[in-house]
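W.,

You were right to be curious about this one. When I first looked at the sequence I had no strong expectations either way, so I just let the prediction run and decided to look at it fresh. Below is the sequence, 122 residues in total, followed by the output.
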Amino acid sequence: QVQLVESGGGLVQAGGSLRVSCTLSGRTFTSYVMGWFRQAPGKEREFLGRISTSGGTTYYADSVKGRFTISRDNPKNTVYLQMNSLRPEDTANYYCAASRFSTIVASQYLYWGQGTQVTVSS
């Protein structure tokens, strides 16, 4: 059974930082590009960034570039999303996902976490 389990969301003040983690079980972690998405109420799911299977290459959406960093620890089957300089508009449910492809398209991600809520207060 494939599972992506996220942790680390919560409430933070504007300007603060938060790190979200996501652990994959049931599949070979190093076979997958890992991506992060978010979805705010009433809005479409937004691609944030992805990291290659080795962790050597990352790609970010313009909306988070320079503020968010994606990393992975392959022996721990875990990917991280480090969020700095958080803004109230970053408030959303954050999802990790696994894909065979280096893609920004949500439909090309095979497995998804359950989501973790991040709330940024002003």
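Here's what jumped out at me. Residues 95 and 115 are 5 Å apart (CA to CA). And, maybe more interesting for your project: DSSP finds no helices and eleven strands in the chain.

Coffee later to discuss?

I.
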